[in-house]
Every structure is written in structure tokens, then in C-alpha cells.
Amino acid sequence: xxxxxxxxxxxxxxxxxxxxxxxxxxxxxxxxxxxxxxxxxxxxxxxxxxxxxxxxxxxxxxxxxxxxxxxxxxxxxxxxxxxxxxxxxxxxxxxxxxxxxxxxxxxxxxxxxxxxxxxxxxxxxxxxxxxxxxxxxxxxxxxxxxxxxxxxxxxxxxxxxxxxxxxxxxxxxxxxxxxxxxxxxxxxxxxxxxxxxxxxxxxxxxxxxxxxxxxxxxxxxxxxxxxxxxxxxxxxxxxxxxxxxxxxxxxxxxxxxxxxxxxxxxxxxxx
Length: 271
Description:
By secondary structure, this protein is mainly α. The protein folds into two domains: about 1-200, no CATH class; about 200-270. About 75% of the residues lie in helices and about 0% in strands. It has helices at about 1-30, 35, 50-80, 90-115, 120-125, 130, 140-155, 160-165, 165-175, 175-190, 195, 200-225, 235-260. The protein is globular.
């Protein structure tokens, strides 16, 4: 377990710092996505905008590892649904990746509060702050990020309280991690300058969701077909909810394919 934690942490730090260094070099030359998009702000002044490369790198790498965590979690759930036992190393790996995501989100929040774009702890922690500061277009992007961060900080550590909460309550709470992931993608699509500048990134991100959607669809399908002997109102409601979510997951998969292959993957407008 310690090896897994060390390897995951080292990988996350190395990728984040490496990407930050790359963005720093581009920004100092006026060639980064942010420097090009906001040319009037003179972001080549690195003494002023020193934290922005870390804002972008921590956000992008955090989104990448959040994807890995979701993939590992859904993979384990599908294995257990068919009576298979996941490899012993899979669960700690999933947990360590999730903890890395928590760390990257905290770094992202800190770096954002220290940037010179008008941010502060208020804009990072309080939804709707930018509406009162004259940037209403960014409110939805910031709000989704703030809600995602609060949700993650609430749900991720719950693993260590599962005995106190009870396994059933903990599992129900843990499923909200997927909501965090969805909010994070929406946040990145609205405020992520790199995603807007490098036009190939958006289609890649959308296509990358298909394995997650297929795993989720498979898991929900199995939930509707297992334990058929269960009866009662609660069992019926659970089954109806599973069927509804199954249909939604299948429809979302088809929608993603449609958006990408019709060239409409940039339908979420950036600020």
C-alpha cells in the first residue's frame, strides 16, 4: 500500500510540475493559451502572473486523475456485480488516486486564490462572487468548480468513516463522487483556456467519457437484473431508478458520439 501511495503521489507531482513548467515557459514568451486569449493583460509578466501556470496544470492533471479514479471505481463495481473479486491492489490504488485528486483540487484552489486575475479566497470559496465583481459570464464556471470542490472534500474522506456511517450509507454517499466528476468537466469546459485553445482537446475529452459511460451502463443494467426475488415498494423504486439511469447513460453515450462526429463538441461556450 505504501508503494502504491508513493508511486501515485510521485506521478501526480511530476506530471503537475512538468506541465506547469511547460505552461510557464509558453506564458513567459506570450505563447500560452491564457497569454494569447488575454493579450491585453500582459501575462508575460511572470512576477505578477506566476501562479497561473499552476492553476492550469493542477486543474488539468486533477481532471485526468479524477477520470482514472472514476474508471477504477466503476471497474471494481462491475467486477463485484458479477461475483468476481477485484485484485487486492486495485482498491488501494483507487483510494490513493482519489486522495491525489483531493490534493490537486486544494492546490488548484490555492493557486487560483493567489493569481492576479482578480481572484481571492472569496471567489474560490463563495459561489456567485464574480457576479458582484463584474464578470457575470464566469459565474456558472466558478460555481460548478466550487460545488465540485465542496462535494469532493465531503465525499472523498468518507472512506475512512465507512464503519461509523455504515456500509450502505457510505456506498450511497460515495456515489456522489460521479457528480463531482461531472461538475469538474463542466467547470473545465467553461473556464479551461487550454481546452478552448487546443481544439483537439474537447473531442478527446468527450470520447474519453465513453468507457466510463459503458461501465456505468453495464453496472446499472446488472443492478436491474440481479436479485429478482426482492419485492416491496423500496425494491420497485430502486429498480425504476436503475432503469431510468441506465437509459440516461445509454442516451448520453449516443449523444457524445453525435457531438464529436458532427463537429459540435464545443457546444459549451467558454467565458
